[in-house]
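Lab notebook, design round three. We kept the backbone fixed and only want residue identities now. Task for the bench partner: fill in a sequence for the structure below.
Input structure tokens:
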């Protein structure tokens, strides 16, 4: 099935729904970040599909060919760069292939892997999201005329943030060896930055610094775990 097939009269992009007729596959393991993408897709007129890991994304692609793919670079079963490399060489190719990350230096790596564009996390502005996609589509897939865009930041449901906290708290209960801990701290850094949770972000950044320096990470893990539990309790009380 080809998700790029659309009926011209029913799926013509408009200034208020500039991504109408497109299907976007978001490869993102964070529920909070995925919810933000979902809201932006809905407001833009696009259909969204979600994969939370490389394996799930590849299964989607066996059945559907989306118009746009947005691939997070830090995933639980590997690097999104590997998927981008494969997709950039695939025939037929996805129309728009974007990478997403909040890590320094990720943009250069994404373009080297073959991405068309890059979304720096956190992605909170609807206009930036739409522009990143429209910059790489054919002129007949773009809306005619100026677009009116909501200037406010996209605000995902707080429950999605709670779900991410639960998942990472459970992950920290197990053996946190080097690769596992790097994934957890990368995940939490991105989510905390998106949610503007500066207390958690500072603790995670300190833990990442300890790990890079080869210091004892047990105190940092204990601090981050405690903050995650606090956020889980706060949400449960609401």
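Proposed sequence:
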């Amino acid at each position: 099935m080809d998700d790029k097939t659309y009926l011209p009269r029913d799926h013509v992009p408009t200034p208020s729904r500039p991504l109408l007729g497109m299907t976007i596959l978001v490869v993102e393991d964070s529920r909070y970040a995925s919810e933000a993408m979902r809201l932006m897709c809905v407001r833009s007129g696009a259909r969204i599909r979600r994969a939370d890991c490389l394996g799930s994304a590849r299964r989607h692609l066996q059945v559907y060919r989306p118009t746009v793919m947005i691939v997070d670079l830090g995933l639980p079963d590997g690097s999104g760069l590997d998927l981008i490399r494969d997709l950039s060489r695939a025939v037929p190719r996805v129309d728009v292939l974007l990478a997403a990350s909040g890590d320094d230096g990720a943009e250069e790596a994404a373009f080297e892997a073959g991405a068309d564009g890059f979304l720096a996390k956190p992605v909170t502005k609807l206009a930036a999201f739409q522009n990143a996609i429209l910059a790489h589509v054919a002129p007949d897939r773009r809306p005619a005329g100026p677009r009116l865009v909501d200037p406010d930041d996209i605000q995902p449901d707080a429950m999605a943030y709670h779900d991410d906290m639960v998942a990472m708290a459970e992950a920290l209960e197990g053996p946190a060896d080097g690769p596992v801990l790097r994934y957890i701290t990368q995940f939490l850094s991105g989510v905390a930055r998106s949610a503007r949770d500066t207390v958690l972000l500072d603790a995670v950044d300190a833990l990442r610094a300890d790990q890079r320096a080869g210091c004892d990470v047990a105190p940092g893990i204990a601090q981050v775990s405690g903050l995650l539990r606090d956020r889980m309790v706060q949400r449960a009380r609401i």
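Keep this in mind before ordering anything: Residues 1-9 have pLDDT under 50 and may be disordered.
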